[in-house]
Specification:
about 400 residues, alpha+beta, Ribosomal Protein S5, domain 2, Alpha-Beta Plaits, 2 domains, four-stranded antiparallel beta sheet, 13 strands, about 20% strand, globular, binds 2-deoxy-2-fluoro-alpha-D-galactopyranose, transferase, kinase
């Protein structure tokens, strides 16, 4: 790509290149901000940041996908709607500056291939690639988990999306060919090898765009907080919804009997949490059929109890379920549009794409996009020969 080549040529020996992936969540949806479990993996595609250090404290950020170019310093940084995607790097610079990290400015060109608004964490990818790059430029040794938490703070406080920790964690901490089982309450985690045998993960994009900021995402979080407060009024020992066992929830459920919507939300969180642990066990024992069944149950719970799917995601899942060779399918990410993830026999992938596209288009008028996924590593500096990563 010409813009990248020109940037690389102009930067010469000063050039540094960083990469942060997108993520796909296998199961454990809308559990992170309730202190539950999630089971995401980093994708092999994501965002590259081509960086040329400056010495005047000024940042100039540009993207190969948008015309917008924004310049800013390290002080008085505020969210501005017209700065669009550049609010992510601005927020990161603001956080780093507040932590006293030396920031001498930089030219940054972003070049990514995560579809925007697809629920594959394009925002966390820009945040992490910026944070990892600027920490490296500043020569500071912030731990990766610190950077992950910092980027979540950017999203919560600068952008205004009350997201949990899952996206930033997967993007910052992912490992090739592994999923991460993360306890979002304690941040304890472990990697589980993604051994899928003859099956592959296929992401299908509804091509219905949505942004968490204008979806009901924040409303769901508030509902969970309200439900927790009601439960805590009688059971102060319950620290988070993620802590509730199925038996604990059966006992607490009558406390919310006047709030059927809240009951449904909690029911989802508690059952989804169990499904994450069961999925991890199924994967580790090679029981992919069980893993697939749990994916489908997860989608049904997100559709009926948590109400974050919508007709496009439901149409994709229904279309996928009837394809021979597809043993599991569900929405992934925040919902309200975005993508599904499906477990498909490698020999059935062509047929899967054909049948799902035909049924989905007939039902919605939209054309889906498919990505057969490879699972990659978390954010990092890219070293080595230009030709291996250039554009
Ligand atoms: C979005 C959020 F950013 C995550 O924190 C998580 O809540 C997810 O939606 C739903 O599981 O991706």
């Amino acid at each position: 790509m010409k813009q990248v080549e020109e940037f690389v040529a102009a930067a010469g020996d000063d050039l540094r290149v960083f990469f942060a992936p997108g993520r796909v969540n296998l199961i454990g949806e809308h559990t992170d901000y309730s202190g539950g479990y999630v089971f995401p993996a980093a994708l092999s595609f994501g965002t590259h940041a081509y960086v040329r250090p400056r010495t005047d404290g000024v940042f100039r950020v540009a993207s190969t996908h948008f015309d917008l170019e924004v310049m800013f310093g390290t002080e008085n940084l505020v969210y501005r709607a017209e700065d669009d995607w550049a609010n992510f790097p601005k927020g990161v610079v603001r956080e780093l500056a507040q932590r006293g990290i030396p920031l001498s400015g930089a030219e940054i060109l972003y070049h990514g291939n995560i579809p925007n608004g697809a629920g594959l964490s394009s925002s966390a990818s820009i945040e992490l690639v910026t944070a990892v790059a600027l920490a490296a430029l500043g020569g500071v040794d912030l731990s990766r988990v610190e950077l992950v938490l910092m980027c979540q703070k950017v999203e919560n406080e600068f952008i205004g999306v009350q997201c949990g920790i899952m996206d930033q964690f997967a993007v910052g901490m992912g490992r090739a060919n592994h999923a991460v089982l993360l306890n979002c309450d304690t941040l304890e985690y472990r990697y589980a090898p993604l051994e899928l045998g003859d099956y592959q993960l296929v992401i299908t994009h509804t091509n219905k765009r949505r942004q968490l900021l204008d979806s009901s995402y924040n409303e769901r979080r508030t509902e969970c907080e309200t439900a927790l407060a009601q439960i805590q009024a009688h059971h102060p020992e319950v620290g988070s919804l993620g802590e509730l066992s199925a038996a604990g929830w059966r006992e607490a459920r009558p406390l919310l009997q006047e709030f059927p919507v809240l009951q449904r939300r909690v029911e989802h969180v508690v059952s989804e949490n169990d499904r994450v642990l069961a999925s991890c066990r199924a994967l580790e024992s090679g029981d992919l059929a069980e893993f697939g069944r749990l994916m489908i149950q997860s989608h049904e719970s997100l559709r009926d109890l948590y109400e974050v799917t919508g007709q496009e995601l439901d149409a994709l899942v229904e279309a996928a379920r009837v394809v021979d060779g597809c043993i599991g399918t569900r929405m992934t990410g925040g919902g309200f549009g975005g993508c599904t993830v499906s477990l498909v026999h490698r020999e059935a992938i062509g047929e899967f794409q054909e049948l799902v596209a035909a049924r989905y288009t007939a039902q919605t008028g939209l054309t889906p996009t498919f990505y057969v996924c490879a699972i990659g590593d978390g954010a990092q500096e890219v070293k080595g020969e230009l030709s291996t990563w250039q554009s």
